[in-house]
């Protein structure tokens, strides 16, 4: 599943191709892709709307339209492409939006987990999300207070989108290693200094991921380079870049978790 850097990269790539265009029609090819509204209402409401902005909130792509907001969650295999000219639909295309100036926005999703919302109230979908980790409101003190309010193991807590928006398996592992914190450490045992270190590590790995256009470790996502710079993620048995100890893997909350047993003591 793409995380914050991958979704941010997709949004940045789509922005110049979409902003300023109008949506002429919608071809919904898999009804369950649409979370809301009903298909007929979706086709009627989206027609003629102007694309004013393209952005991201957590792992959601956000298209601000002239009358509504279009939210897209790519989940495991979703991909968005702007294609000029005539376009014969492919087998895994789930939604095709015909755009002005003879172009198509194509949502392809082989595993069918991706979802699309057209809503006049984006807070109804996004309102429960935690703070953006690169925002001004996300401070070391705010992180420390949130960690001590939850009292959970660090790794699953960092993956909880109501706690912190946009962080996933890759960047949680990378940030915990950079901060030298064990993934199973109870959050209420994190000191103020450790919270500040974790805050900086989260921002550092996300910013580095964005600079490298995310990580391309799935056949769906192309062009990223961050996978060539992982510290621990998917490096089981390889040497820690800090101390040389072999990276270990354990399962936390049904997610593969990678860490250095020497640098990240419990």
CATH class of the largest domain: Alpha Beta
- Number of extended strands: 11
| Tally of helical segments | 7
What structural category arises from helix and sheet content? alpha+beta
Q: Tell me roughly what share of residues is in helical segments.
A: 25-40%
CATH topology of the largest domain: N-terminal domain of MutM-like DNA repair proteins
Poorly predicted regions are none
Largest sheet: 5 strands, mixed
Give the CA-CA distance, first to last residue: 28 Å
List keywords for this structure.
single chain, 266 residues, alpha+beta, N-terminal domain of MutM-like DNA repair proteins, Helicase, Ruva Protein, domain 3, 2 domains, five-stranded mixed sheet, four-stranded antiparallel sheet, 7 helices, 11 strands, elongated
Task: Give an overview in words.
- With 266 residues, the chain is an alpha+beta fold.
- The protein folds into 2 domains: 4-126, N-terminal domain of MutM-like DNA repair proteins; 140-259, Helicase, Ruva Protein, domain 3 (Orthogonal Bundle).
- It is built from 7 helices and 11 strands.
- The chain has helices at residues 4-18, 39-46, 123-126, 140-150, 154-159, 169-179, 192-211; strands at residues 23-28, 34-36, 51-57, 60-65, 69-73, 78-84, 93-99, 103-109, 115-119, 248-252, 255-259.
- The strands form 3 sheets. Strands 2-9-5-4-3 form a 5-stranded mixed β-sheet. It has a 4-stranded antiparallel β-sheet with strand order 1-7-8-6. It has a two-stranded antiparallel ribbon with strand order 10-11.
- Strand 4 (60-65) and strand 5 (69-73) form a beta hairpin.
- Helix 1 packs across helix 7 (192-211) and helix 6 (169-179) crosses helix 7 (192-211).
- The longest helix has 20 residues, at 192-211.
- The two termini are 28 Å apart.
